[in-house]
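Quiz preparation item.
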């Protein structure tokens, strides 16, 4: 993969990658750091990508690893009570976003990858390195938990 092709494809994914980072990390600066680190690692390792058709899932997996690395570092540095709350989106339904962000990480991530970023079950399975059946189960349970919370909050009728 040459540098121009890499740049075009990475720029096309920029918003999606940022949203994925935001689903893991609360602070905007941490999201930007994770995104920069992921792009740098991907650039340095671009010759290890076996099939260019998997560029999106490959880069997303690198980003998730960078996010997890930042989270591990934060756990060592500060207690969880002092972490800032995850920001709500500027557009869309803020109540639904708040409820989505309150879901357990394993459900929140698969829901965001599926419905916000449009990845199929097979791609999510590759990105998160979990079986497809697990992805399907987490999608189902996550949707049910979100539906229950939204009904309790009277966001949906």
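Solution:
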């Amino acid at each position: 993969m040459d540098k121009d092709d890499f740049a075009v494809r990475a720029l096309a994914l920029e918003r999606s990658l940022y949203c994925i980072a935001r689903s893991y990390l609360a602070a905007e600066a941490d999201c930007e750091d994770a995104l920069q680190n992921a792009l740098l690692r991907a650039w340095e390792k671009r010759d290890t990508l076996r099939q260019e058709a998997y560029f999106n899932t490959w880069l997303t997996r690198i980003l998730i690893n960078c996010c997890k690395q930042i989270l591990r570092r934060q756990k060592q540095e500060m207690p969880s009570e002092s972490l800032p709350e995850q920001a709500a989106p500027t557009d869309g339904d803020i109540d639904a976003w708040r409820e989505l962000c309150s879901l357990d990480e394993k459900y929140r991530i698969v829901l965001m990858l599926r419905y916000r970023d449009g990845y199929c079950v097979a791609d999510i399975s590759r990105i998160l390195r979990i079986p497809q059946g697990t992805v399907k189960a987490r999608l189902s349970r996550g949707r049910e938990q979100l539906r229950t919370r939204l009904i309790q909050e009277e966001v949906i009728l």
